[in-house]
Amino acid sequence: MRLQHIAVSGWRNLAPADLPLGPGLVVLWGENGAGKTNLLEAAAVLTTLRSFRSNAWNEVVRWGGAEASVAGRVEGGAGTSLHGVRVEAGSRPAVGPGGRTAALRHVVLDGQEIRDLGRWFLTLRAVVFTPDDTWIVRGGPEHRRRFLDRAAFNAHPVHLDRVRAWRRAQAQRAALLRRGDPDRPLLDAWDEALVQAGVQVALGRAHVVRALAGPLRAVHEDLAGGTSAALSYRCALGEGEAPDLDAAYRRLLGDAREEEIRRGIPLVGIQRDDLDVRIDGGGALRSARTWGSQGQVRTLALSLRLAELAVAGTAGEPPILLLDDLSSEVDEDRLGRLVALLGRLSGQVLVTTTDPGPLTRRALGSVQALRVKAGTVDPGDSRG
Predict the structure, then answer these.
(1) H runs (alpha helix) in the chain
(2) What gap in Å lies between CA 262 and CA 251, rounded to an integer?
(3) What's the predicted TM-score (pTM) here?
(4) Is 118 exposed, middle or buried (0-12, 13-18, 19+ CB in 10 A)?
(5) Cβ-Cβ contacts under 8 Å for 5 (sequence gap 6 or more)
(6) How buried is residue 247: exposed, middle or buried, by Cβ count under 10 Å (0-12/13-18/19+)?
(7) Backbone φ, ψ for residue 303 (5° rounding)
(8) What gap in Å lies between CA 281 and CA 228, rounded to an integer?
C-alpha cells in the first residue's frame, strides 16, 4: 500500500498543505520546532487513527481554530481509496475535571463517514517508530503488551476486535467486583465472556511472538553489527492450544474469585502478561530492560518495529513505515545500515530528520525530500 497524496489543514502549526508523496523514501526535514513531526503525526493519524504524541484530540487543532483535518489518497492491491480524518475542537462535553471540552473525531472513507474501522484498515495500515518506543524495552509490561497487540493487529486485523471484546468483558466484570457483593450468576457470565475473548487474545499474542522472532533476530544483527536478540511471551495462562488455555483461565478466575470479591478488583488474567526481550551480552542472552545500554535499547526498539513491519507484510501488502526523529536515535554507523535495510523494503517509508543528507546520499531507489520551515512544507526535490 502507498499513500500517494496527503492534505492537511488546521493541524497544529502547519499551514494548509496539499502534497504528492513518492513511492519509496520520503524525507521530511527541517529545524527542531519547524513542524516536520506535526506532518508525520498527521500521516500517523491518517494511517493508524491514533496520534503518537497525545491522547487528547483537541491538541492537534491549531490554537484558536475550529477543526483540523488530514486526508489522503491510498493506492493498493484493492485499488484506490480516499481516507480522511477530521477533528472538531471542543465539540462535546469532556468527562472529568477542568471544564474543558473534548474534540470529536470523524473518520471518512471514500466520502462516507464510517464507524466500522475494519473497512479502514483493509486498505491502510502503518507501523510507527518514535523515540518513545524505547519504553517498549525499558518500561513496564503494559508497553510491551501494547506493542504485541499492535503487531498482532497489523498482521491480522481481527485481533483488534478480540482485544476490544476482552476489554469490554474485563470492564463489566471489574464494575461488578467493585460492588462488593456482586450477582454471582452475572459474574459467571462475564467470567465466560472474559475467557472466550481472552484466550483468543493470548493465542494472537503467542502467534505474533513466534512470527517476530526470526525477523527481529535478522534485523537486529544487521543494525547492531552481529549482536543477537530474542523474544519470549510470558502468558498468565501458560502455553498450549485453546482448550488448555480455556481451562487455565477458568481455573485462575475460580481460584481468585473470593479474594477478588473481597478486594473489589480483578487480580488475575492476561492483563498481567509480559514480553521478555533479550539481547546478547557477553555471550549470553540477557534482559534488555535491565542490561542494555541506551544505544542498545534504541537499536532494539527500532528493530522491534522493523520486525513488526516484516511480519505484517507476510500477511498481505506491507504497511507504510513512519519513522520520527531518526537521526537523533541512530548513530552514523547504524544509520548507514538502516538506510541500506530500508532500501531493500518494498513499501513506502516516511521519515523525519533535521539533516536529510545522510539519508538521501545513502538511499537506494526513489527519494523525495520535503522541507518543513515554520509550518510550511516545500515540495523540494525528488529522485526516481
Answers:
(1) 36-48, 117-123, 134-138, 141-155, 158-178, 184-223, 242-263, 288-291, 294-314, 326-329, 332-343, 357-362
(2) 18
(3) 0.91
(4) exposed
(5) 18, 19, 20, 21, 72, 73
(6) middle
(7) -60, -40
(8) 9
Q: What gap in Å lies between CA 295 and CA 272, rounded to an integer?
A: 28
C-beta of residue 29 within 8 angstroms of C-beta of residue 353: yes
**Residue recorded with cell 539519508:** 359
**Cα dist. 149→44, 45, 164, 273 in Å?**
17, 18, 11, 11
CB 14 within 8 A of CB 35: yes
Residue type, 50: R
What angle do helix axes 141-155 and 184-223 make, rounded to 10 degrees? 80
Q: Scanning the structure block, which residue is given the C-alpha cell 483540523?
A: 68
Q: In what order do the strands lie in the sheet with 284-287?
A: 229-234, 274-281, 284-287
In 3D, which of 120, 358, 356 has the Cα closest to residue 368?
Answer: 356
Q: Are 275 and 231 in contact (CB under 8 A)?
A: yes
For residue 379, the one-letter residue type is P
Work out the end-to-end distance of the chain between its first and last CA atoms, rounded to an integer number of angstroms: 18
From first to last of the 384 residues of the chain, give the pLDDT tens digit: 899 999 999 999 999 999 999 998 999 999 999 999 999 999 999 999 999 998 889 899 998 899 999 999 999 877 899 999 999 987 555 444 444 456 789 999 999 998 888 888 888 999 999 999 999 999 999 999 999 999 999 999 899 999 999 999 999 999 999 988 889 999 999 999 999 999 999 999 999 999 999 999 999 999 888 889 999 999 999 999 999 999 999 999 999 999 999 999 999 999 999 999 999 877 788 999 988 888 889 999 999 999 999 999 876 788 999 999 876 656 677 788 888 888 787 789 999 999 888 888 877 778 899 999 999 998 765 554
User: According to the 3-state scheme, what is the secondary structure of 323-364?
Assistant: ECCHHHHCCHHHHHHHHHHHHCCCCCEEEEECCCHHHHHHCC
Alpha carbons within 13 angstroms on the beta-carbon side of residue 158 total: 5
379 vs 377: CA distance, rounded Å: 6
Which three-class secondary structure state does DSSP give residue 113?
Answer: strand
306: three-class secondary structure by DSSP = helix
